[in-house]
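Final report, Chapter 2: Outcomes

The project's central promise was a pipeline that accepts a single protein chain and returns its three-dimensional structure in a standardized token representation, suitable for archiving and comparison. That pipeline is now operational. To close this chapter, we reproduce one record exactly as it appears in the project archive, with the input sequence first and the structure output second.
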Amino acid sequence: MLRLGDTASATEASLEPPLHPFSMSRRLGGEALGTALLLAIVVGSGIMGERLAGGNVAIALLGNTIATGTGLIVLITIFGPLCGAHFNPAVTLVFALRRQIGLGTAAAYVAAQIVGGVVGVWVAHAMFAEPILQISTKLRDGRAQAFAEFVATFGLIAAILGSIRFRPEATPMAVGLYIMSAYWFTASTSFANPAVTIARALTDSFSGIAPGDVPMFIAAQLVGALAALGVMRWFFTASPPLALSTDRARS
């Protein structure tokens, strides 16, 4: 998963089997469709949960959490071999900085993610007979919310980089389970995704976010992603074996 470049070879197209190269149009289509389905899951399950919970916000959030986490596992499993299944500009940024995806491809990925996210919100509205075009009025402001997004995104990037380093086949499960947990341990319910944040500003439902709070969330997410990249790079940088280092010191 997530290992794509402008000139990807057959063995670089993805860390998930089968390892086949795909055209740029198919990869961008995979990012757009995958992000659209992700937002349809997030927003749709939020609407359904709120309608069925009878005013119990915890039950509504639980339904939203389960649907989102399990949906992510499925989407990453499906689209990972095709496009890397980023679905997230913060993830794309990290892999661009790691030089595992070209800058031109990264920019196209981000555009596809944002467009797909908006379409996914509209799909959710249509399924529940809601007005298609909406603007959220749900406030998610304050430094605590921003810090929560920093933490949520830091953890997400750490989960991705750690899993693809040591257990690439477990990446879909690791990401889905992390997001499910972060829904509950972060004050912001773990958006951890600039494309998702932009799209959720266009739904005045359970999962929405007021447009005025979007820049703060995105800034915190990007800083969290960069911080995680730095920390995980330090963790994973090769160093001489302890015995070899000791022998050299003695000599």
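Archive annotation: Residues 24-52 form the longest helix (29 residues).
This record, like all others produced under the grant, will remain available to the consortium after the project formally closes.
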